[in-house]
TrEMBL record:
<dbReference type="InterPro" id="IPR014016">
    <property type="entry name" value="UvrD-like_ATP-bd"/>
</dbReference>
<comment type="similarity">
    <text>Belongs to the helicase family. UvrD subfamily.</text>
</comment>
<dbReference type="GO" id="GO:0005829">
    <property type="term" value="C:cytosol"/>
</dbReference>
<dbReference type="InterPro" id="IPR014017">
    <property type="entry name" value="DNA_helicase_UvrD-like_C"/>
</dbReference>
<keyword id="KW-0378">Hydrolase</keyword>
<dbReference type="Pfam" id="PF13361">
    <property type="entry name" value="UvrD_C"/>
</dbReference>
<dbReference type="GO" id="GO:0005524">
    <property type="term" value="F:ATP binding"/>
</dbReference>
<feature type="domain" description="UvrD-like helicase ATP-binding">
    <location>
        <begin position="6"/>
        <end position="283"/>
    </location>
</feature>
<dbReference type="InterPro" id="IPR000212">
    <property type="entry name" value="DNA_helicase_UvrD/REP"/>
</dbReference>
<dbReference type="GO" id="GO:0043138">
    <property type="term" value="F:3'-5' DNA helicase activity"/>
</dbReference>
<feature type="domain" description="UvrD-like helicase C-terminal">
    <location>
        <begin position="284"/>
        <end position="601"/>
    </location>
</feature>
<protein>
    <recommendedName>
        <fullName>DNA 3'-5' helicase</fullName>
        <ecNumber>5.6.2.4</ecNumber>
    </recommendedName>
</protein>
<dbReference type="Pfam" id="PF21196">
    <property type="entry name" value="PcrA_UvrD_tudor"/>
</dbReference>
<keyword id="KW-0238">DNA-binding</keyword>
<dbReference type="Pfam" id="PF00580">
    <property type="entry name" value="UvrD-helicase"/>
</dbReference>
<dbReference type="GO" id="GO:0000725">
    <property type="term" value="P:recombinational repair"/>
</dbReference>
<dbReference type="InterPro" id="IPR013986">
    <property type="entry name" value="DExx_box_DNA_helicase_dom_sf"/>
</dbReference>
Amino acid sequence: MPDLLANLNPEQLAAVTLPNEPALILAGAGSGKTRVLITRIAWLIQQRFATPATVLAVTFTNKAAREMMGRLTALLPIDTRGMWIGTFHGLCNRMLRAHHRDAGLPATFQILDTADQLSAIKRLMKGLGVDDEKYPPKNLQYFINNAKEQGLRPDQVDASDTFNQKFVELYRAYEQQCQREGVVDFPELLLRCYELLVHHAPLRAHYQARFKHILVDEFQDTNKLQYAWLKLLAGPSNAIFAVGDDDQSIYAFRGANVGNMRDFEREFNVRHLIKLEQNYRSHGYILDAANQLIANNARRLGKNLRTDAGHGEPVRVYEAATDTQEAAWAVEEIRALMNQGLARGEIAVLYRSNAQSRAIEHTLVSAGIPYRVYGGLRFFERQEIKHALAYLRLIDNGNDDTAFARVVNFPTRGIGARTIEQLADAARLYNCSMAAAIPYVTGKAGSSLASFANLIAKMRVETERMSLPETVEYVVRTSGLAEFYEGEREGQDRLENLQELVNAATAFVSEEGYGLDTPARSIPLSRGASAAPEIGFSPDDAGDPATTVLDAPGLDEPAQNPDLMTPLAGFLSHASLEAGESQAQAGEDAVQLMTVHAAKGLEFTAVFITGLEEGLFPHENSAIEPEGLEEERRLMYVAITRAKERLYLSFAQSRMLHGQTRYNIRSRFFDELPQETLKWLTPKAEAGARWGGRSDNAGWGRDWFARPDRQQGRYGGSYGGYAATEGAAAALPAFANEQREADTGFRVGQQVFHTKFGEGAITALEGSGADARAQVRFKRHGEKWLALAVAKLQVVE
DNA sequence: TGGGCAGAAGTTTTT
DNA sequence: CTTCTGCCCA
């Protein structure tokens, strides 16, 4: 029996061996968080406190789920088939597939990814004749997803103003459309699953009886709905073991609610709060920097990282004249590090926003250094892949209009916009899917539509007994996609990707344990039957609730076996829920370029944090959020704690952005770091002497400014008082007198609408032209300063 | 039906 | 400056 507990430090040991009661593990960066989570599961099972079937472990990314699964099976010989380890969305999908009838969904419901959802919304709005200038589809998408993440259906959303009323009305219509088409978007997966458990007491009781041990990774990233779902599963008696770090909460902008940690502590009456503060990653100075920086944040649960490693090297700071020069310097340093024997893959260049990668990429290319940029187009998001998947979806579910609209005329088969419009009208008239409305379209248009319908029908018949990979290959060929790309000049890559899709199907079938010959659209009998003793681990299993539920009366069939998913449905879910790796670039051993967000969870021997300038990092836009600056600081904290041995911080006096040269001052974060850990490679200029005092009001984003002699900027500076000295700064004339009283079209007291913050009233105006700003008191978001050139306020009649 | 062009917009991102 | 979107024309 392996000694799971060897080499754990006292805090880790305490966490791993806690009794089965609610627990919150505050795990600092590099403190062995994942290890604790995995060892905890293994220990529970080894000690017979749990069987694999009574454990539910949830993560945010597929990557994390895979890692957990992999490391767990390496620790203990567990049959993972019966385990519920996955992402929130993956687990909810699994549950909804199993109980689709109770959830009010067809067995073949399809999942819309973000892009699919947007096109569904556009189609809806077009059909209803809604002005998409006044109601931008993207805003409606945000509105819908936001509502769902708050657990709100259309009739529960506050619709006090006319704008919201329209959105609510569209939300309702969107839901009807999705329901008719048998499609489900990402937040819907969670909300449906949540409602399923709320409304079906036997199901709820079943899962509550089953999942005695609920473990949550990255708890600080959960949103309200996810937390509610967890609470429901936990019920009155199950324990949640939550692991997270409030200091690494960097996803508030997409709904993450750090407050869940406090709520959890309170609502579950958490008695076990364990802090993992021993850091195994970074040298001392780097941790000192991180600790002191994050101490500037107010609402923290409180935590300080420590290390047994020595101070290590100081944090190197570099001030460049321009972004180009910053890149040149960084690449020189990288070269030096490589010469010292450091692997390229151990070097990362981090930045706040993607646009910043360009300058560094350029320099790396000319230096001939292989690099890899994270982010970008991913496998299942490629055009040709989405097309192929659309055919597969249509075979599975003919009502899926999103899939239908995507490929009805791709490859082109003489079905133009006119015809599609006719069809859409008919579909609306008869309240049916586009496919079902085909017989109602007459004439030539009708016959070309009919032949498309025949094509799909033929595919459906001929793939009846095919395995999943065969089906995919067949569809790629029969749809005409392969032929189309063969004829394209640059279709070679796309053809290869389509072949890769067939390979992905093969891999999926084998990894998921389907028989290679299992027909893609039939329920895998072998799986259904053999999966019954889901645990197969110890003699105790006989009494396990997971086993008994299969025969439990009162539950809807064929739901009980959670794995009752056809290979095709499984594969389509997989394609939607896991977009795949972003395109691999350059060689294996390449310098790593990514945003700070993308770097979370990773570590490198040497890290460059670039573009540390006011307006960029912290980003100007975060000034409008009440807690924006604190999140930026947490982001900086995440960035710093990626470094193991060497950390570089750099900024540039001027930077090309959006075709304009911007002049920024160095980030305030420099002033929040312990100065004794910093080693300035360029002379340190005193911020005060150099730039004049800094205003500390709400609109701190204005601390940077565009060069007035160019004056094209939306942000043209009208602030005087900057003491010009050297270089770029010398180009700054005093500019304060130029302020004119140009009419902004707004007045104090006016009611306005902002797409993100909703309704509010103007309480003050200042500046003019491109620089004009308004202070608005929003009903729900408090007072904010908004740049009129940016904010696009609409006057409410 | 598709290409060409003008105009807009441009933090962060997973599912 | 670049990238994407939507529109118009041949």
